[in-house]
Hints:
The protein has 409 residues and is an all-alpha fold. Helix content is 70%, strand content 0%. The chain is built from 21 helices and no strands. It has helices at residues 15-23, 56-66, 70-83, 88-100, 104-117, 122-134, 138-151, 156-168, 172-185, 190-202, 206-218, 223-235, 239-252, 259-269, 273-286, 291-303, 307-320, 325-337, 341-354, 359-371, 375-401. The protein is globular. It starts with 14 loop residues before the first helix and ends in an 8-residue tail after the last helix.
Amino acid sequence: MLTIDVSGPIRNRPAHLASRFLLGAARYNRSRVRLAALVLSLPLGLALLGADQPQDPLRQAQTALQSGDVGAAIRFYREFLKTYPDAAEIRSNLGAALVQDGQFAAAVTEYNTALQQLPNNRRIRMNLALAYYKLGQLPEAEKHLELLYRSQPLDVKPALLLADCLLETNRPAKAVEVLTPLHAEFPDDHAIVYVLGMALMKDNRIPEAQTLLDGILRDGESAEAAFLLGQSELLRNDLAAAAGHLKHAVELDPKMPWVHSLYGQALKSAGELDEAAVQFNEELKVNPYDFTANTEIAVLLLQDGKPDQAMSHLTMALRVRPHDPGALYQRASIHLAQGVTEQARQELEQLIRDYPNFSEAHAALARVYYKLQRTADGDREAAEARRVREAAQKQLDEKRNSPTGKNPI
């Protein structure tokens, strides 16, 4: 069984090479941040148990793992833990086997129990965060990654995965804060440069992102460079240039996180909806919980008259960003398409309470009220939708006409 110590750098290698090994890449780790989740966690030494304790189930578990029989290993670990429920190290090994078997929810339970017994064990906490990550429960993963990061800010593995979570939940400024000191310590690590560059662009700090991109370009052609170039052109609204760079990034590394999703956005903006849908689906093969890919596919499925399938994708997106107003609006729209009008009404009413300047939500609520024969309420919400749109347009015009104003990207 492959064993990797996630609590520190791989022996006889610098920390940034250890991170590349963890992220599973051959060259500059291909910036495969999400492949950090392949670290399944990692059996802690059986020698920690006393010599007088029965070893047979543990030896059988190890033998089963070595032969690839994960199910048998799980049974043997559980048999041992019936007699020794406080053996936290072995419970962590059970969690590792469960992850390897794809039972992430069960692994979370075991890791949480082990962590209660060994609350300062970084390895168990990291593996718990990875299990939450694989389940798409990014807020829970982030909580544990934040603890790991705060105690050791220059530990590459939890810092990169934390930054990934922050980007997925649309907090690029916090991701920049996490990665900037890491980049100062490991300036040649392309995984760090790639994620930091994306965070800077999403935070609209284009000159700083360009500096990082220039550094990658000096090292020659790479998927990371093509991706960041594509993102930069997309921000400039040069759709043809963006699509060209992103297509090249896909060709160089089709399993790189985010690349299919961003390529899909470029294609959709250019009106190539079928090709965009292909890219969004390809992204979900890499990361089933990608927020953008799931929400975009949900929109396309709803337009095709497939609300049930659309809801499946939106549910995945809401696991990542449970309070995102756009996703919540889509959920209400799907419920309306499914004929669950009362549910849609409740969701839209809550949405405009939380986001009173969300004009589309006001307009959708007006349609719901009209459908429910509540004409006065419908008229009120329709008027509010117009008021919010006009106020937003006025603000935009004032910004554009200001001598110091800039057109939004």
